[in-house]
Specification:
single chain; 697 residues; alpha/beta; Rossmann fold; six-stranded mixed sheet; five-stranded mixed sheet; 43% helix; Malic_NAD-bd; metal-binding
Length: 697
């Protein structure tokens, strides 16, 4: 099947469409229902009647956006009407939810009259925290947005106008910097004079471009003052009319620094590109086919050609999803009355700045492991980069506060943590780790220091103040790779094969001389095995921790630190722990990698240390000793060990967390089973520490 048929099947799968309404409060009992509806609901209603702002406290208004359209200008489809546009509007809702956790009602109005459309949308103000206008044809869209912004006390944003403007504006900031040109000197040519082109031209002026340096072309050619006088252009296009002779797009592009295409595909030739100024910036943003292809633009000339399109299969995709979810997130969270020019500029500047930062491995992997490094082919972040939410939304929120549009102030550090929590427990847990690390940065030895991922990790640790990294490996290789990656930092490097490390060899020999290692073998291990080098570095107090395992097999990574550093004074055994994060819970699993067949005493020790670890992540432990048996349902030597371990822990006065066993994993994790079938258990909530009886389990 082709894409069209696949999409039809995708949309018609039961339930049809792409969005649904889900409850956020318990609805399991009669009391729940009496709180959710009559009679209990009357209390918040009375409060809101007394103070309308209470709606943000009692209802979903503060996280609800209306995507409103009449379907008169659907991208690639044109005027298909309100009903046919509904799949697009539902899709917009999916993007709001996926990228910024914003709920959406899509509203398709079968109204083409401007005043009637404005009245209908204005009447919905009590429902929504913001309005996203979508796919409304020009010039009506200008008038509709203007009237609604004047009449409504919540943010109103026409994404077709401002989305492209903001994203391409971020790209323009970085492109101009790369080619070393000032914005106020740029000669900019626009192909297209619709809603998006006009809004983009205005936004470029807001960023610092000069209006008199912008030449705009529509299908009839350059928009000139003489055409305005002849009544050939509407009042919106007339804003960018220039006192020049009439001509076509080719005439306009001669000598231009920037081409901004928001028109139709294939109308720009290589010759037109060659006529532009040195190191031209070309944003060919027509969809699905750009005004000139990436390959043709790049090969048209020998100097730097910075190219962006609206397509995902080429570098520098100008994708509106980088903007509207995060702009609305910031605006909603400070209860902004509008999305003003300062907030839009803040979004563009935050995107531009984020593109200059090192890109996390997860993002690189999501885009096929292609290098993502600031430069001509990486001007703006990728949509799947989760950092966009944490950078753009706070920037927009702060701009709203500074410009006077906000009705609520936020602590930006706390706000970033709240945003991460919206993306699930994994982000929340990482924030806990990062905050603790930043409060007391440790020296971390990176044993595989010549590996690209380790070098990039060291850069991020140092850049964010998380730790003081020490890269172990060949100095020249590390510095060369860092330069290739475009990482501007001065790393601390320890080269085992070049330097005075005899004291490390002496210490290893001292520790292992009665374990079969000779003096020469100790020297060889320190010089040639970076895991032994890093282990001795930690043992001697020259580093606080080591990181390894990226390229080594697990035993090869674990054996050196166990032999050299050993376990803590209060521990007899090491154990491996996995932390599993889900949307609303975190589960620690142990021992998963070290002890083959532990007895009950080892299981008890593993449980205590894993509980301590959970608390270091701000998780209050509830431990379950796992088995295929539930509380004695099967009795043999295998099921006795976790049961006896649980008894040891329950009898230990130093154990101050709930623990029980033996039990099956679903008993430990499913509340209905735990508190229903086994209500006698010492766990009154599902476990978050699972201790396995052996490695096979």
């Amino acid at each position: 099947m082709g894409l069209d048929d696949d999409s039809r099947d995708y949309h018609r799968q039961d339930p049809p469409g792409k969005i649904e309404i889900a409850t956020t409060k318990p609805t399991n009992t009669q009391r729940d229902l009496s709180l959710a509806y009559s009679p209990g609901v009357a209390a918040p209603c009375r409060d809101i009647a007394d103070d309308e702002d209470a709606a943000y406290e009692y209802t979903s208004k503060g996280n609800l956006v209306g995507v409103v359209s009449n379907g008169t200008a659907v991208l690639g489809l044109g005027d298909i009407g309100a009903q046919a546009s509904k799949p697009v509007m539902e899709g917009k809702g999916v993007l709001f939810k996926r990228f910024a956790d914003i709920d959406v009602f899509d509203v398709e109005l079968d109204i083409t009259d401007v005043d009637d459309f404005v009245a209908a949308t204005k009447a919905m103000e009590p429902t929504f925290g913001g309005i996203n206008l979508e796919d409304i044809k020009a010039p009506e869209c200008f008038e509709i947005e203007q009237q609604l912004r004047e009449q409504m006390d919540i943010p109103v944003f026409h994404d077709d106008q401002h989305g492209t403007a903001i994203i391409s504006g971020a790209a323009l900031l970085n492109a101009a910097d790369i080619v070393e040109k000032d914005l106020d000197d740029l000669e900019i040519v626009f192909s297209g004079a619709g809603a998006s082109a006009l809004a983009t031209a205005r936004f470029y002026v807001s960023l610092g471009a000069k209006k008199e340096n912008i030449t705009m072309c529509d299908s009839s050619g350059i928009i000139t003052e003489s055409r305005v006088e002849a009544g050939d252009v509407n009042k919106y296009k007339a804003e960018f009319a220039q006192p020049v002779e009439e001509g076509d797009l080719a005439d306009a592009m001669a000598g231009a620094d920037v081409f901004a295409g928001l028109s139709v595909g294939g109308i720009v030739s290589q010759e037109m590109v060659r006529s532009m100024a040195n190191d031209p910036i070309i944003f060919a943003m027509a969809n699905p086919d750009p005004e000139i292809t990436y390959e043709d633009a790049k090969s048209a000339r020998d100097d730097t050609v910075i190219m962006a399109t609206g397509r995902s299969d080429y570098p520098n995709q100008v994708n509106n999803v980088l903007g509207f979810p995060f702009i609305f997130r910031g605006a909603l969270d400070v209860r902004a009355t509008e999305i003003n020019e300062a907030m839009k500029r803040a979004a563009a500047e935050a995107l531009a700045e984020l593109a200059r930062q090192d890109v996390p491995d997860a993002v690189v992997k999501a885009y096929g492991d292609h290098p993502l490094q600031f430069g001509p082919d990486y001007l703006i972040p990728k949509p799947l980069d989760p950092r966009v939410l944490f950078e753009v939304a706070p920037a927009v929120a702060q701009a709203a506060v500074t410009s006077g549009a906000a009705r609520k102030r936020l602590d930006l550090n706390e706000y970033r943590e709240q945003l991460e929590a919206r993306l699930g427990k994994s982000r929340e847990m990482m924030r806990v780790v990062l905050n603790k690390a930043k409060s007391n940065p440790k020296r971390v030895a990176l044993a595989e220091g010549t590996n690209e991922k380790m070098i990039r990790a060291a850069y991020q640790m140092q850049e964010e103040g998380i730790a003081h990294p020490i890269l172990i490996g060949n100095t020249k290789r590390i510095l060369r790779k860092a330069e290739e990656l475009g990482l501007d930092f001065d790393p601390t490097i320890a080269n085992p094969r070049d330097g005075e490390w005899d004291h490390y060899a002496d210490r290893l020999y001292e520790l292992r001389q009665r374990k079969g290692i000779t003096e020469s073998e100790a020297s060889e291990l320190v010089r040639r095995d970076s895991n032994y080098f890093a282990s001795v570095m930690v043992e001697m107090g020259d580093a606080d921790a080591m990181l390894t395992g990226l390229t080594h097999h697990y035993p090869g990574g674990l054996r050196p630190p166990l032999q050299v550093i050993g376990t803590a004074e209060d521990a007899n055994y090491a154990a491996g722990v996995y932390m599993m994060t889900f949307k609303n819970r975190v589960v620690f699993c142990a021992d998963t990698t070290v002890n083959l067949d532990p007895d009950e005493e080892i299981l008890a020790e593993i449980t205590k240390h894993t509980a301590e670890l959970a608390r270091r992540f701000n998780v209050e432990p509830r431990a379950a000793l796992l088995s295929y048996s539930n509380f004695g349902s099967v009795r043999n030597e295998g099921t006795a060990k976790p049961r006896d371990a649980a008894n040891l822990l329950q009898d230990d006065p130093e154990v101050d967390f709930p623990v029980d066993g033996e039990m099956q994993a679903d008993t430990a994790l499913v509340e209905d089973i735990l508190t229903g079938t086994y209500d006698f258990s010492d766990l009154d909530e599902p476990a978050n520490v699972l201790v396995f009886p052996n490695l096979e389990a």
